[in-house]
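Records of this kind hold a single protein each, on a pair of labelled lines. Below, a sample record shows both lines together.
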Amino acid sequence: MNLPIYLYGTQVLRKVAQPIDQTYANLEKLMADMYDTMYNSDGIGLAAPQIGLDIRLLVFDLDVMSDDFPEYKGVKKTMINAQIIETFGEEVSREEGCLSLPGIHESVTRQEGIRIKYLDENFQEKEEVFEGFIARVIQHEYDHLEGVLFIDHISPIRKQLIKSKLSNIIKGKVRCHYRTKTSSK
């Protein structure tokens, strides 16, 4: 099922998400719905707060980029109760966007690598190291679980320059090709 994406200004995007266990109701369907929503929104990653749930669940799929970047072929993961336990490497700036902030793209500085512990879709514990673009995608989605948006990483001057765009998103004055939910709806 294609779910609405919650946009900037909705309270759930600022909450710290809560851990879940195997008894979470309809979890398998929820994970499938998150992938469906992400694909229908032309996203490569999605965190549960973006669909209105304050739980520690994120998904991403970079396979869509594999024509240009063969190393992303089959890179698809579900992460439950993720915890970044280490960041490392150079700080790298790269433009980011977000389904919850349509029309806004800003340069964000993040560390090049992460070590993350999580449960996969079968509740098997994993600990992995990711570097480069994959690490950036995970950090971006992980921030959602912590109530942080990518614009929180930009300078106050840049934030001031996008203030009217942010205000329009809050007011629902934004066009998206995907279903959305704003604080004014």
About this structure: The beta strands are 5-6, 45-47, 57-61, 76-96, 106-119, 125-131, 180-181. The helical segments are 27-40, 133-145, 156-161, 163-170. The mean pLDDT is 96. The domain at 5-181 is CATH 3.90.45.10 (Peptide Deformylase).
